[in-house]
Amino acid sequence: MKKAVIFDVDGVIVFSEKAYQKRRAIFFEKNGLPVSQEVQEHFVGSNAFDMFEQLIPADIKKREELLQAYQEFRRQYPINYQEMFNPDILSTLDGLVKKGIRLAVASSGPLENIYRILEVNQIKNYFELITSGEMFARSKPNPEIYQYTVSKLDLQPSDCLVIEDSAFGIEAARRANLSVAALKSQQFAIDQSQATYQIESTKQLLDLI
After folding, report:
1. Tens digits of per-residue pLDDT, 18-30?
2. Could you please report the per-residue DSSP string of 181-196?
3. Where does the record locate the signal sequence feature (predicted)?
């Protein structure tokens, strides 16, 4: 039996990626960056730093200026995280707690945003550890975020189950030697073939631990 479940946030706790794509599209158009829908979907599960590094690989100064401008734009752009809250999460968390399972978050998103999502949906207190990709030089698919989270929980990879949706997140967890349950995306066709399990609802975690 597993001892802990580690949750991704976007695409698992909140179905937010469509809203993020719309936000990015507005910013890209405003700043004259031609970005196709295919490229947009490639960035599902990534973070802003990695995104701009790929979009503007050569001009470091321009990249840094646009990244700073995007971070400010993102702070000002309204997103209602209650409207996109996964309706299965509360019962899932309650069920895991009743089984004595420890809970953590490991998300590529900014720490401030992770806290906002958890707090507005009144679930922050379920999690004993919250880890953000911005804490590391490289976020997902780099495995460091998951290696760090498991270490801080003082557990072994075999003790933990990760729930993810994106290919980047699944790869990060697998590279950290973790079992991964891939939640079927409500918004995109995502390659989840590398996951240990594929599930339709977070409530299925209760049968996997």
Report:
1. 888 888 889 888 8
2. EEEPPSSS----TTSS
3. none
